[in-house]
Fold this protein.
Amino acid sequence: MLHIGIVCYPTYGGSGVVATELGKALARRGYRVHFITYALPWRLDAFHDNIFFHEVELPNYPLFEFQLYSLALAGKLVDVARYERLDILHVHYAIPHAISGYLAQRMLWEHHGMMLPVITTLHGTDITLVGLEPSFYPVVRFSLEHSDAVTAVSSFLAEKTRHQFLIQRPIEVIPNFVDTRTFVPHPNPELRRQFAPQGEYILLHVSNFRPVKRSPDTVRILAEVRSAVPAKLILIGDGPERSEAERLARQLGVDEHVRCLGKQPVTPELLSIADIFLLPSQSESFGLAALEAMSCGVPVVATTAGGIPEVVRHGETGFLAEIGDIDRMARYCLELLSNPKKHQLFRERARQRALEFDTELIVPLYERLYQRVLEQERISL
Ligand code: GMT
């Protein structure tokens, strides 16, 4: 069985979740999976057979005003690849992982005669935002051109990459996935009562509260929804705009109806108490959090940004509006909340749609890609 190295961000965020869930699924299939990053990925919460974690240590020296993570990672990759006999390296989020992978690949080949194919999976802001910074742009472009394969989590992101980075090479779309046996509708009236003691409706939003998520819009939507029906808003996650969301809730007089839970494990139990999942993003390459909610039978009200329409079907599994169109998103919420039959139908369709992204269907696409890349490598040697 193959030995696979996975590089990702270990923090609270979609790309790290996808990388970790992929590693766990591959390990269950018998692959030996080595995570290489600076901290234990937060969804790697228990012992898993066939999974190994290698921490990248950051040497400190007074001369280094900034941490040299990209270099430390490249060095660690050489070490792990040699001693754990990696067959393939799969990096998630291009910056800086793709260039560290490339550097490791060159060192392994020139110093040790070892060929290590590198696959880069693009997730979102590595292409749409951060990668466009003039100081990163040439590095991202170069590292994508030199990866042995590049995948993107949506057609939107693949197209954006070709267009923004003038890249001719194939970019395979492998969508994100969800374990639909774990993320199942999980009714828990007791838990629901804790958040909505008078039987209010529940809106839910999960994010890292970066500006691209437009999280404060969820508070504006709640305020409009509450002018028609009683409702609560649960916010899960943390980040730069959390305090703005809290401030806005106070300003709009709905603070006692908003519960900010901060960084929490996003469990099926918690997702299942929601009536509607809100995702009012400015930019979103896929929307994994929405997919996990749909898998628990929760319809989504979101924007048409990026790859969201590839996941949420407007008028079937949720509703999509223009970015910043609070009135419309609030009206869509009310359309569902005031029509129980329609709401139930959307719940069922959301679950059905999520089944199309089940782990068992998507992970084999990565397995086939690994085989193809290794085959290409064998031919070229
Ligand atoms: O691009 C980011 O902001 C990072 C990334 C993350 O780690 O949170 O999020 C992106 O990757 C997720 C997993 O593939 C996608 O579901 C998110 O849509 C995407 N975020 C954005 O495009 C803003």
